[in-house]
Amino acid sequence: MFNYESYLRLDKFPLIWCSGCGDGIVLKSMIRAIDKLGLSKDDVCMVSGIGCSSRLTGYVDFNTLHTTHGRALTFATGIKMAKPRLHVIVVTGDGDATAIGGNHYIHAARRNIDITVILFNNFIYGMTGGQVSPCTPKGKRASTAPYGNFENAFNISGLAQAAGASFVARATVYNAVQLEKLIQRAIERKGFSLVEVLSPCPTAYGRRNREGTPVDMILQQKETTVSVAAAEKMSAEELEGKIITGVLTDVERPECREEYQKLIDSFRKEG
Amino acid sequence: MAEETLRRKREAEITINTAWCKGCVICVELCPEQVLVMERGKAKVAHLDKCTVCGLCELRCPDFAIVVVDKNKSPKTGE
Amino acid sequence: MAEEKKIKVLTGNEACAEGALAAGMRFYAGYPITPSSEVAEVLAEELPRLGGVFIQMEDEIASMGAIIGASLAGTKAMTATSGPGFSLMQENIGFAAMAEVPCVVVNVMRGGPSTGLPTLPAQADVMQARWGTHGDHAIIVLAPFSVAETFDLTVRAFNLSEQYRTPVILLLDEIIGHVNERVTIVDPGSLEIFNRIVPSDPPDQYKPYRHTESGVPPMIAYGEGYRFHVTGLAHDETGFPTNSAAEIGRMLERHHRKVEQARDHIVQVDPFMMEDAEIGIVAYGSTARSARHAVRLARETGKRVGLLRLKTLWPFADEEIRSYIGQVKSWIVPEMNLGQMAHEVEWALAGSAPVTRLNKVNGDPISPPEIYQIIPG
Q1: Does B53 map to a domain?
Q2: Domains held by chain B: number
Q3: B-chain residues within 8 Å CB-CB of A212?
Q4: At residue A196, what are phi and psi to the nearest 5 degrees?
Q5: Of A137, A99, A109, nearest in space to A243 by CA
Q6: Over 60: is that where the pLDDT of B9 sits?
Q7: For labelling, which of A203, A246, C3, C14 has a CA lying 20 to 30 Å from the CA of C146?
Q8: Do chains B and C touch (3 or more CB pairs under 8 A)?
Q9: Is residue B21 one of the residues assigned to a domain?
Q10: Is B37 inside a domain boundary?
Q11: SS3 C15
C-alpha cells in the first residue's frame, strides 16, 4: 500500500524492537506523514535521546542524531537555532522526555521553538528492563515497583500545553491513520508541536501487568481512549480512567527562532 | 531474504518478509477477513481470496514485514 | 572602516567573547554562573548584530547539548561556565569527544568542590578538564595567563577544535576572567583561522568517521545533502553503532592518535629566563603571573631561576619539561589546588629532579613573595 523503502536504511533491519512493540507502527506513521508533506530527506533532521524509541534514528535515511539520555531537545534546539531551514523532529520516550529530560521538555515547549516531538509513551523503561517511569500509572507494576507504583503519573500532553506549545495531540498505534494525520499536522504547525503516542510495550510492561498479548494491548487502546469530541460530551465520572485522543491544542503563537530572526533583521536594517 | 509471495487472480498481492517478521500475531488477529495465519512463528497468507486489500495488516505491522499491493493500483511511494 | 589595530581595556571574560567572535563563533548557548557570566552578557549583545545566535538555556547540560547541535549544523559554537556548571557539562562533553564534534567550552575556575567559592579563584578543575567525562577520550585544554592571551587562546581554541574535531576547553580562573588589561585587537582578517575540513567524497561515499592518516575525518554539516548518522554509542566509520571489538578499538585508538600525533603543534609553553635556569618553576594561569614576578625578584639576588609557563595544559608538556633534565636541578610547582599539575611534573621527570609543591585552596591567590620564599639558594 505504501513503499517505505526510500526512507529506510534497509541494511540496519530487522528493527531492534521486541515482537509486538508498537514503536514500529509509529515509525511507519511518521514516514507516511513526512512523505505526504513532501519534505526533502536532506531537509529533515531527526534527533533522539536514549531508550527503545530513540533507536529509531538509526533506521531512517535523514540527517540523524542519537544523543544522550533526556537531552535530545537540547541538541535539537541548537540545530534549529543554527539552521532554521531544517525540519527538526525529535523522537523520545516517556522516561527520556519527562524524567531525565523533563526540564528540557518544558523549556522547549515554553520557547515554542519550531520542533516536532514524537513522544512514544509506553509507560515504562523498556530498554533497561521495565523500571517504573514518571508515566507509569499509579498501581501498575514495574521491576522497580514490584508492589505497584505508589507515585502519581505525569500527564505528558498537559505539561506541553501548560508550558506553551503551539500544537499538542495524543494518539494511539491502534488508530495509525489518525496518528499519521496528527504527525502531519504537528510538523506543519510552526512552533513546538507534540504528538504523544501510546505505544504498547508487551515485554516490559504488558507481561508484568497481565495486559495480555500485543493484540490485547492494541485493542485495549480502543477501549481506554475517547476522542476529544466525545470527551466534551462526557461527565467527569465517565471520563475517569479514560485517555483523550486527538488534537488537544492547536494555536498560532510566536515561534522562538522567528522572533530571534526579527532581532537579527532589526540590526541589518540599522547597519 | 526469505520472501513468500502469493498471488490470486484478483487484485491483492501480499508479501511477507519472514526475515523481519517477529511473529507478534498483530496482523493475523486484526485482519478483518482472517486472511493470515501463523506458521512456525511467522505470519503466512492462507486465504488470499478473502483479502479486500484494506491494508490494515501492513499499517499495523511494526516490523515492515508485510506489503499489500492492490495490483490494479500503483503503490504509493515517497521521493 | 575600523583601524587595523584597536587598543581596548577588557576583562578576561570580555576578551574571551571578543576572541570567539574573531574566530568566527556564531552560536553561543549558556547558563548564568559567576564568575563567567560576562562572557554571555557580551555575546548576548554582539551575536544578533552579526547574524549569530545567542540563547540562554535552562541549565548547563542543555547549553552543552545546544552547542553540539549547532556545531553539527555547521556553526562554530561555544559555551562558558564555572565549576558547578562545568560538572553538569561533562556528560555532553563526552558526547562531543565520542562523536568528534568541534566546540569550545570555557570554564572560569572558581573555588570548589560544590558551590565552593563563587567569586574567588582556583585552579582545581585541571584534572576535571582532562578526565571529567567518563571513559577514555581525547581532549585539548588551554590556559591563558593574561587578558591579551585570553583573546589569542580563545581564537586558538576554535582553530584546534576545528582542526582536530574535538572539544577544546579553555580554562580561565576568576582572576584572569575579571582583571582589566589593555588588549590590542587586531583586524580579524589578519588572524589565522582554521575551518573544519569538508569531505571531497560525494554523499553516497561519505563516511563521517573515516580513518584518515591525520586521524581526523572530514566533516560536513547537517542539511548539505549528506545524510549521515551521529551517535554517542561506539560506532564504525559509517557512524552507525557497532559491536565489533576490532572496529571499536580502532576508533578509540584513532581518537587518541589524532591529538597525540599532533601534540607538537598543540602543546605550547612559554619559557621565561629558562636559558640558564637551575631552578625551574612550572606554572599556568594567574599563578604564572606571580611566578614571573618571583623569578624577577630572585634574579635580582642572583638566583638562576626560570619559569616554564604552560599555555597548553592537555596534552601535557612532558617533553618540554624533560628537555631541561640535566640543566634544571630542582622544580617548583605553585598552583591553586592541592597538586594536580605537580603530580604530572613529577611523573614527567620520573625522579630525575626534586619537585617542590606550593598549594593554596583558600580562595587567596598565590602571591609572588610566597613563591620567592621557597626558591632555594
Answers
A1: yes
A2: 1
A3: none
A4: -90, 115
A5: A137
A6: no
A7: C3
A8: no
A9: yes
A10: yes
A11: helix
